Amino acid sequence: MKKIIAFVVRHGETSLNKNNDFRGDIDVPLDADGKKQAAAIVPFFKNKKFSGIYGSTRKRVAETLAPLLKDKKAKMKPLKALDSLNTGEFAGKPKDKDNLDELKWYREHPEETIPGGEKVANFRKRVDAKMMDLLHRGESGSKPVLIGAHGSIVKEIGRLLHHDMDHAKVEPGGIVAIYKSPSGYSAEPIFRPAKESEEVYAGS
Question: In this structure, which topology does domain 3-87+121-193 adopt according to CATH?
């Protein structure tokens, strides 16, 4: 039997997302569109309950979950293990070809430290351990867990569960469901925020 054991909410839009800049360790808040995306999450989860709510220590994650927490009269437990990849000197820089190629080198050489940041190997170690801990909590409980996270965390979930960093990719304000079945864990995007006049939709 296949059941949802976790929902992962990618934080809403920020000015750095809009500019297509690396966020990394910069504690940037949501912009106006990000706040609309945060509000759109509330009706999606209207009839859902959670065994626990967790998120990173960054304000963009806290601000994304704030309307839902208010609606549910719940609290989020901040976990530093869920913070985004610390891209060090890349943070705030544009995601142009040169910078993307350089950061790709560090992903391909995970034991090398990103200048001013962290090793990709260390990032994966902390994310993998905490994600598996949270998935086990969702699996053993009667309700799924809710996780507020970053794009880099969503990429690692795809790598961890599908060996494909783009498998669970969602844009800011998107939601990924993590399932448990007899064959193991899987992750699938199930919600994306509306753009301009579009209506939001939920996939299955």
Answer: Rossmann fold (3.40.50)
